[in-house]
Amino acid sequence: MAEREKVLEIRDLSISFRTEGAKVNAIRGVDLDLYRGETIAIVGESGSGKSVTTKAIMGILAKNGTIDSGTINYTWTDPDGSKHTKDIVKMTEKEIQSEIRGRKIAMVFQDPLTSLNPTMTIGKQVMEPMMYHYGTSKEEAYKKAVELLSEVGITDPEARMKNYPHQLSGGMRQRVVIAIALSCDPYLLICDEPTTALDVTIQAKILELIRDLQKKKDLSVIYITHDLGVVAKVADYVNVMYAGKIIEKGTIDEIFYDPRHPYTWGLLSAMPDLDTDDDELYTIPGSPPNLTKKVQGDAFAPRNAYALNIDLRLEPPMFDVPGSSSHKVASWLMDPRAPKVEMPESLRNRIQKMVKEGVAK
Amino acid sequence: MIDQTKPILEVKDLKQYFPISRKFTVKAVDGISFDIMPGETYGLVGESGSGKSTTGRAIIRLYEPTAGKIIFEGQDISGKMSNEAIKTLRTKMAMIFQDPMACLNPRKKVLDIVAQGLDIHHSYDSIEERNEKVYKMLETVGLSREHANRYPNQFSGGQRQRIGIARALIMNPDLVIADEAISALDVSIQAQVVNLMKKMQKETGAAYLFIAHDLSMVKYISNRIGVLHLGHLVEAGTSEEIFNNPLHPYTKSLLSAIPHPNPRVEKTRKSYTYDYKTSGLNYEEGTPHKVSETHYVLGTDADFERFMAEAGKGF
Amino acid sequence: MDNTKFLPDDFELVGDKQNINIDEVLPSRPMWQDILGRFKENKGAVIGVILIIIITLLAIIVPLVSRWNYAEMNTSIANRVPSGEHWFGTDYLGRDLWVRTWQGTRYSLIIAVVAVIIDIVVGMTYGLVSGYFGGMVDAIMQRIQEIINSIPTLVVLIILLTVMKPSLKTVIIALIFTEWIPMSRITRAQVLKVKEEEYVLAARTLGAGNIFILFKEILPNIFGQLIIMSMMTIPNAIFYEAYLAFIGLGLTKPLASLGTLINDGFRLFQVYPHAMLIPAAVMAILMLSFNLFGDGLRDALDPTMKEG
User: Strands B207-212 and B41-45, how do they pair?
Assistant: First the structure.
C-alpha cells in the first residue's frame, strides 16, 4: 500500500452534556484515525454517541456539551504544498468558522428538507459558501455551481438553480445538499445518516453518488449510520460504537466476516437477509444503557449473553486481534485467560454464505 | 367465529383522493384491490408517496374513502357505516403507528394509554379487572407492571413501540395495521419488535397488514406482498413470487435497491434504475394480469407480454 | 493495565446467569418535578411569583386592617406627602393613599382574574371548536372572529359609553368583547398542530369520540401553552383597565383602581408627584411580575425549549 496520509486523528476524546439533574457522559475516550481518500463508518444505535463525535469535529456541539479531554488533530496540505496540523478542540469558534466548517470539513445531514433554506433558491445556496469562504466572484460562483449540480446528477442544472427546495424531490434535495457540501472543495466529508430519510431506491443512488465523487475528488469520508447495508456498500474501515465508546474497529472485511465482539454479532444478526426464515430473529435484548449513571465495568455487560464476571467490575481495554494490525476489540473475551466463545451458529452460517457469494462475484 | 376460508378484509377498487385546490386533486390511492386472509401477514411496500400509508389509514377509516369498497369481517366499512359496523371496525381492527415519539400521549400514564380501548368500549366490570388486563398485556410485550404508572418520556424508542403494540392488541383485534411500525427504530430494536409481533400473531391468530419500505423485513414477516407505486398496486404475490420472480420494473428496482450486509457483493453492485416517466408505462391503462394463482402484475396486454419476455418466460 | 488486579473467577461466563431480558427503564423524574425544577432555575420568575404573592396579600389585608377607610374624605389633610401617619400620603380630597392604593390593586387583580376566566371560557372554547372540527365550521367561525376583530376597540368603547355607566361591569364587558381573540387564535393553532399527531389518530382508530379526544388527548397537551398565554394577557388587562379609567370609562368614584388613582394623581402631578408615582409604581411592579412569571412558566412548561 502506498503511504497513507493521515487527515484526522482523534485521541481519548471525552464529551459530556449537562442536563437538568444529571451529567451525561456521551463520549468516553474515543480514538479514531482517518486517512486521505478513505472512508470510515461509525456504526451504533441512537444514543451511542456517534453523532456527538462528528459534531465535535465540526465544532457544533450543543450549548450544554463540553469536551472534557482529548484532541482532534486535523491535518491538511495547503496549495503551496506545506502541511499543517491543528487541534480543533483548542481552536476558537471564530477560527473554526472561517477555517474548518464548510471549508475544509463539510457535512451532509440526515434530512435534506431541514438542512436547506426554504426561502432561498438552490443556486444561491450553492454559490453562497464559495463567495463567503473564498470571495469568489458572482459569475465564477455561478459557473461553478452549475458544474457542481451537474456533477451530483441533477439534470438541467441551469434551470434548477432558480428553483426553491420545495420544488424538488427528496432525492434531488439531498443531491443539492451534497453539492453545497462540496462547493468549497473540502478534504473531509461527514455524512450523518445521509439516506435514512430517503426511499430505498434513492438511497442506493445517493450512496453510489457519494462513492463516485469521493474517488474523483480524493475525499476522506466519515459515515455515521445504524444501517449495516449502507456500511457494506461504502466503508473501508468500520468503528462500532456502544455507549460512548468504540468497542470494535477494523477493516470492513474484518468486521463483517470475522466479528469478535458480542455486540457486533448482535448487530449483524439482527438484520434479516433475504434468505432468513428463522422463526425468530436474533436480537440484542434490553435497551441501551443510560449514560447519566457512572458505568461500572463494561457498559454492554447487562445485555451480553457472553458476559464474564470481570465485565461487571472492570472496563475492558482494546485488545489487538492476533494476526491483524487494524482489528481491535474492547472485550474481555479477547483476553487469553477468557473461555473460548464462538459466535452464534446462525451468524456463522450466514457469514460463510456471504464469503461464498463474495468469491462468486 | 371467523370463517378461516374467507378473507377477513377485502379491498375493492379503493380510491382515496385529496382535493388540494379547486383545480388540483392528489390521487394518493387510485384504485387498488387486495384481500387478507385470517391470520396471514400481508406486506405493503412502496416508496414514500406511493400511497401505502394512505391505504392503511383509509382502511381503518381515518379518512373517508373517495370510492371503492372495504369489506371487513363481512361488513361494509366504506361509506356510511351502521352502528354495528363501527363497533366491529373499532374493536376488531387496530393500528400500530410509525413514530415511537409521537404515537403515545405524553401527558398520560402508560396504564391509561394501554387501557384506552377498554375505556372507550367499556369492556370491563371493575377497575381492578381493567388494570389487571393492562398488566398482563404489558408483561406479554416484555414490560413489567411497575412500568404502568410511568409516563412515555421515561421509555426508550423500542419500549414505546411495544407500548403502542400493547395498546393495539389489548382489544384482541383480528386485523392489525402496522404502519411503518419499525422504520423509526434502531436495527437491533427492529428485530425485537418484529419478533414480538410474530409471537403475538402466533398467540392471537390476528392478521397483519404490514406497511413498510424495508423489503428485507417485509420479506421476512409477510406471507404475501403487494407493491404499490404512485397509488397503483403494480404487483402482488406471495413473498417468494415477488422476490424470486419479480416482473414489474418497479418491483425490480425496489429489490435491487435492498442493501446487502455483505461488503464484497455490495461494493461493486449498481442498483437498477426505474423512472415511471420514461418507462413508457401507463398505470391508468393497465389491468391486473394473472401470472399464477396468487401472482398478479399491473399492465396493458403489451406491457404484460414484455414483462413475461424479460422474465425469460414468454408465452 | 499492568497493575490491574484480577480475581480468580474473573474469567467465568456469567451471561447465562444474569437475566438479560429484564428491561431497565430510564430513571427520570416525574414531569411536574421537571417543570418545578426548571421554573426554580429561572430567578426572574421566582422573584415575580414572590412579588405577586406579596402584592396580593397586601391588597387583601391592608384595606381590612387599616384605620383609614378608602372612601373617607378629610379635606383638612389633603395632599399630604408620605409620612408615619399616612404611609403613601393623601390625595386631593384627603383620602389615605396607602389604603386606596391597595384597594385599587384589589380591583386590578379582580380584573386580572376575570381576564383569565374570559380567556379560558370564551377564547379557549372558541379556538378548540374551530380548530378541532375544521372545514366549514372553522371557516365560518374564523370569519366571525375576523369581523369582530376588525372593529376598532375605541369604537366599541364609545358605543359602550353611550349605553352604559362607567363601572366594573363596563370594564368587564369591554374585556369580554376584545380579550378572547388572541387566545382563541393560539388555541386554534395549537389544536391544528396536535390533532394530526399519531396519538390522536391512535385514539380515533380505537373508536374514541370527539369529546374524549378533545378533553383527554388534545387539551392536556396544549393546556400548558394556553395557561402561559393567559398569564401573558394579565398585564394587558390591567393596563387596559388603567387606559379605560384614563378615558373615563373605568370605575366610578369613590371606588378606586390603580388606573383611576393614576388618573387622579396625574392632575396634580407637578405639585404632588407622589399621588401618581406610587400607584404607577405598584402597577408597573405588578405587570412586570406577571410578565416574569409568564416567561418562567413558558420556559418550564414548553418541552420544545428543552434541549437534548
Answer: parallel
Going by pLDDT thresholds of 50, 70 and 90, the confidence category of residue B315 is: very low
- Report pLDDT digits (tens) over A103-125: 889 999 888 778 889 899 999 99
Query: Do residues A248 and A215 touch, judged by C-beta distance below 8 A?
Result: no
- DSSP 8-state code for residue C33: H
**CATH class of the domain at C40-72+89-305:** mainly alpha
Tell me if C220 and B108 make a contact (CB, 8 A cut-off).
yes
Domains of chain A in sequence order: 6-235 (3.40.50.300), 241-360 (3.40.50.300)
| Contact criterion met (CB below 8 Å) for B60 and B95 | yes
CA A152 from chain centre, in angstroms, equals 21
ipTM (interface pTM): 0.86
CA dist list (Å): B104 to B254, C14, C200, C205: 32, 37, 9, 13
Q: Which residues of A touch B48 (CB under 8 A)?
A: 170, 199
Q: Chain B: residue nearest C196 by CA?
A: B102
Question: What percentage of chain C reaches a pLDDT higher than 90?
Answer: 20
Q: How far is CA A293 from CA A22, B311, C116, in A?
A: 9, 58, 43
CA A24, CA C307: separation in Å to the nearest integer?
13
CB contact under 8 Å between B216 and A228, yes or no, is no
- The domain that contains B77 carries what CATH number? 3.40.50.300
Is B41 an 8 Å CB contact of chain A? no
- Is B89 a domain residue? yes
In a domain, B315, yes or no: no
Distance from CA of A105 to the nearest CA of B (A): 25
**Measured between alpha carbons, how far is residue C165 from residues C249, C250, C252 in Å?**
8, 9, 8
B120 and C CB contact within 8 Å? yes
Segment C186-202, tens digit of pLDDT: 999 999 999 989 999 99
Range of the structural domain that residue B204 is part of: 9-310
What CA dihedral angle connects A348, A351, A355 and A356, to 10 degrees? 70
Q: Is C232 helix (H, G, I), strand (E, B) or coil?
A: helix
CB contact under 8 A, A45 and B273: no
Domains identified in chain B, total number? 1
Residue B4 counted as domain residue: no
Whether C221 and B117 lie within 8 Å, measured CB to CB: no
Contacting residues of A for B188, CB less than 8 Å apart? 45, 266-267, 270, 283-284
pTM for the model stands at 0.82
Kindly list the domain boundaries of chain C, sorted by start residue: 40-72+89-305
pLDDT of A308 > 90? The answer is no
B150 touches chain A (CB under 8 A): no
Q: Is residue B3 part of a domain?
A: no
Question: Closest-CA residue in chain A for C20?
Answer: A303
Q: Which of B99, B116, B155 sits opposite C198 (nearest CB)?
A: B99
What pLDDT, in 10s, does the model give residues A315-357? 899 999 988 889 999 999 988 888 888 888 888 888 888 888 8
Give the integer Cα–Cα distance in Å for A152 and C264: 74
| pLDDT tens profile B29-71 | 999 999 999 999 999 998 888 889 999 999 999 999 999 999 9
Question: Are residues B142 and B148 in contact, defined by beta-carbon separation less than 8 angstroms?
Answer: no
Query: CA of A235 to nearest chain B CA: how many angstroms apart?
Result: 8
Whether B89 and chain C come into contact, CB under 8 Å, resolves to yes
With contact defined as 3+ CB pairs under 8 Å, the chains touching A are: B, C
* The three three-digit cell numbers of residue B174, written as one number: 383480528
CA atoms within 13 A on the CB side of C16: 3
pLDDT at C28: 55
Nearest by Cα to B297 from B236, B228, B242: B236
Kindly identify which residue of chain B lies nearest to residue C198, measuring between CA atoms.
B103
Distances from the Cα of C15 to the Cαs of A107, A116, A148, A317, C91, in angstroms?
A: 40, 47, 53, 19, 84
What's residue B314's pLDDT? 38
